[in-house]
Amino acid sequence: MTPQETSEPAVAAVVVLAAGQGTRMRSATPKVLHAIGGRSLLGHVLAAAEPLAAAATVVVVGAGREAVEEHLREIAPAAVPVVQEEQLGSGHAAAVALSALSDIEGPVLLLNGDAPLLRATTVIDLVAAHKRAGSLLTVLTAEVDDPTGLGRVVRGADGGVQAIVEERDATDAQRAIREINAGVYVADAAALRRSLAGVGSANAQGEQYLTDVVVLLVADGAPVGAFVAGDPDDVLGCNDRRELADRGRTLNERLLDGLMRAGVTVVDPSTTWVDVTVTVAPDVVLEPGTQLKGTTSVAAGAVVGPDTTLADCRVGEEATVLRSHCLGADIGPRVSVGPFSYLRPGTRLATRSRVGAFVETKNAEVGEDSKVPHLSYVGDATIGTGANIGAATVFVNYDGVAKHRTTVGDHVRIGSDTMLVAPVTVGDGAYTAAGSVITSDVPPGAMAVARSPQRNVAGWVRRRRSGSPAARAAEAAERRAESPAGDPGHDTDE
Ligand code: UD1
Ligand code: CA
Fold this sequence. Notes:
Shape: elongated
Bound molecules: uridine-diphosphate-N-acetylglucosamine, calcium ion
Number of domains: 2
Helix content: 10-25%
Oligomer: single chain
CATH superfamily of the largest domain: Spore Coat Polysaccharide Biosynthesis Protein SpsA, Chain A
CATH architecture of the largest domain: Alpha-Beta Complex
């Protein structure tokens, strides 16, 4: 059994505040749906809270709520969206959430929806500190170099937290404080309900601030604490595109650090981007300009890049993928891909097969040890083992109405520039002649020739292009042919 099954949940409920417009993003997409590291901001926040195994997770939605609700159905179907009709402030949002959690008692974790760098360990430490101190409210804080725009944590002479003051409401002295409110709190549900009822909106923004519960609880003599995050990056929000890019880079650096510690070579961390959902085995080499996205996994000893994007791909042991763009492809062990290959969904490359330069594949199975080395399109195809597909072969899969499949057997040799017009089957061990247009099945072991015989029209150039360099060259060749002894042009090197 996992620890989650044996122990009490760390908190009774998780509340994510995600109703805000996110005006500074200047986007048609709600802020919390913007993504870094292959996961939405909201997804990151939910992931940080997940180990707490709360019985209930509520997400307050408002601006762009349809899109946020749809996203929640995809990534966290157990989370319950609760609508805040009007965005009257974070305090109002928290009250709306609690009204949907009327039977909840004990500690509740509240998080802003736009803090993608928050780590589960930080959240766990926050909850543990809250419980140890027996507080009714504990605020996650951090010491930052630049507190601009953030709520400041005001402490009394004894060091205890007294208030959180928003920048726009702060005195000059308060603005100088560098300890900021992360927007992450653990609060006793009953105490929070009581104090939220007393929150007004007499502030610079005319909003109901969640942060005002601090001063209200302190006035009641309730125990209120702060937990300072070990890594100030954890608490950084994301309010505009600049911050989105900055948070994305920090997240990526953290991820690459983890990979490198686990034995992955990352030649250039500044140009290598890996989604949080990707797995990379030890002794993989990621060359500069590599992007690994979605559900991609890379097995030991593989080399990816330079300048390669893999989305939802599986890369087998010791495969190499060089300067290529691959989507939904299954690249087997010791396979070689690239340079300049485009693998599309449904591509399955078996052990030691090879797809080379300027080759596009889609719904294509390439068998063990088979090769598509150059300049081909392989769509809707099954290729057996040990086959060779000559340069510039096209699997002609589309008749303008429907897609059809081509089957190529084991140890087949497809000549260069063959058109395989599907549906068609080339039997085991068969050959096709270069330049053939194959429209009917080729039996095993046959040589299919499907091209018009060559016809040479003698003397055509001399007659029709008289005086041209080509005609002169042809005439010289004819003279040499007539008197081979006097032909200096055919001397071999001495
Ligand atoms: C908030 C905190 C601030 C803290 C900062 C950390 C308040 C008043 N201030 O400021 O002390 O330093 O986060 O990033 O909380 N929201 C709703 N409904 C609303 C208003 C907001 O759901 O009516 C949500 C937003 O979507 C967001 C969160 O609450 O996820 C915080 O709101 P936001 O307006 O971003 O507050 P900040 O000014 O960033
Ligand atoms: Ca914010």
